């Protein structure tokens, strides 16, 4: 069994990183609720990305002086900008927008939960990769678990216009497109540089939108700044950062199967932190999602095996 540079077996390191990723990505829903009563969606998103962009900009400045930042062509920089706009702006704003229109968080999570199936279905024709039979079974079980967890919320949503239900679908599609674009990058810069570009683009877009809407001034309430710190450290650095690290480490199907765990983990977290209801359906859905994630990742080919969806590298199509 191969070991990492810190002496931990590679497989166990991946497991630990995956667990941290699930917790951090799920924290986005919890952190957003902390500041929702104090500020608008645009204000929260603006300061979330503005703070992290400034911090990362300082880190890149230090790396630049030490000549640790590789040179990038305009094409490379432009592609990372596009990936950042799709995966951050496109995903976050559509999720928050759908909820503000009256679509329940459960329905939004349900639509986002379809992402692993979409990725698995497109991986073959777009990446020339293989999703194995048991992986498909795991993906189906995971989707069923997500449906079970979010069904009550989905059926109780009322008052939202019909087109509002397409909004989270656009967010899910935005993240899927960004994921496949990233998989076509063969000479990507270090993760810190990538995250800085992505967060910088999001900060510019959300700041411009907030100024235009007249909501750029942040409230002084402690709950708002607690949510910003929460979203910056856990959701952006932890969740978003680990998403791209694990994508290169484990592959598209394995990483996206972890998305099945987000709705049930968020439900458990919400119960513990906000006293939200935790029913038998939530418990069963959590068990199904955990089982599905284990099946999908267990069936992924090992690093030295024949290339599959979990490890393949591709060249951009002409």
Automatic annotation (TrEMBL):
Belongs to the EamA transporter family. The keyword Membrane applies. It comes from the Bacteria. It is a multi-pass membrane protein. One of its GO terms (cellular component) is membrane. It holds the Pfam family EamA. Keywords: Membrane, Transmembrane, Transmembrane helix. It is found in: Membrane. The keyword Cytoplasm does not apply. InterPro entries: AA-Vitamin_Transporters, EamA_dom, EmrE-like. The chain crosses the membrane at residues 12-32, 44-65, 77-99, 111-129, 136-154, 160-181, 193-217, 223-246, 253-272, 278-296. Residues 15-150, 163-297 form the EamA domain. This is DMT family transporter.
């Amino acid at each position: 069994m191969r070991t990492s540079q810190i002496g931990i077996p590679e497989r166990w390191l991946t497991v630990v990183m995956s667990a941290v990723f699930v917790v951090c990505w799920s924290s986005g829903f919890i952190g957003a609720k902390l500041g929702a009563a104090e500020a608008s969606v645009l204000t929260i998103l603006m300061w979330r990305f503005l703070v992290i962009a400034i911090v990362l900009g300082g880190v890149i400045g230090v790396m630049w002086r030490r000549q640790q930042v590789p040179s990038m062509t305009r094409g490379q920089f432009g592609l990372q900008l596009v990936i950042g706009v799709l995966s951050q702006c496109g995903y976050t704003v559509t999720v928050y927008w759908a909820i503000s229109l009256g679509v329940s968080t459960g329905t939004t999570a349900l639509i986002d939960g379809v992402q692993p199936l979409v990725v698995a279905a497109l991986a073959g024709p777009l990446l020339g990769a293989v999703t194995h039979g048991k992986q498909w079974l795991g993906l189906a079980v995971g989707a069923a678990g997500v449906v079970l967890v979010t069904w009550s919320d989905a059926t109780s949503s009322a008052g939202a216009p019909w087109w509002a239900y397409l909004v989270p679908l656009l967010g899910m599609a935005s993240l899927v497109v960004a994921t496949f674009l990233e998989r076509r990058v063969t000479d990507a810069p270090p993760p810190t540089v990538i995250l800085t570009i992505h967060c910088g683009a999001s900060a510019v877009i959300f700041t411009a939108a907030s100024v235009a809407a007249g909501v750029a001034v942040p409230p002084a309430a402690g709950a708002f700044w607690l949510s910003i710190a929460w979203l910056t450290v856990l959701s952006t650095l932890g969740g978003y950062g680990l998403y791209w690290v694990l994508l290169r480490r484990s592959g598209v199907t394995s990483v996206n199967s972890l998305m099945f765990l987000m709705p049930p983990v968020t439900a458990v977290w919400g119960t513990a932190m906000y006293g939200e209801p935790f029913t038998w359906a939530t418990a069963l859905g959590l068990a199904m999602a955990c089982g599905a994630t284990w099946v999908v990742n267990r069936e992924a080919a090992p690093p030295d095996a024949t290339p599959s969806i979990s490890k393949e590298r591709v060249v951009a199509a002409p």
